[in-house]
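Researcher: I'd like a structural prediction for the single chain below. Treat it as a standalone chain; there are no partners to consider.
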Amino acid sequence: MASSLDFIEYVCEQISGVGVVRYRKMFGEYMVYVNDKPILLICDNMVFVKILDCISDQMKEAEKGFPYDGAKEHYVLDIDNAEFSKEIITLLEPYISIPKPKKKKA
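Model: Treating it as a single chain, here is the predicted structure.
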């Protein structure tokens, strides 16, 4: 089941104020970018974040899951808790790099 646009917009509202927030449809699901960095992966109306050391203490009680077949395991972020979500994004953002533009084939 693909994520709904209403849910994507809700996620963006919940994290407003952490930087420039935008989303992009990818493979039928969505990636949410903060300051041009891919921070949140949204699949089946669930919000996933990479498992990184910088948030391991805060996310130790969080559920884990696989956003799609073949993906690495991620934390599931409780997006309904806006303050906690913003804290996690603020901690993650310095450790996520801006993706390099892909070269176009000739």
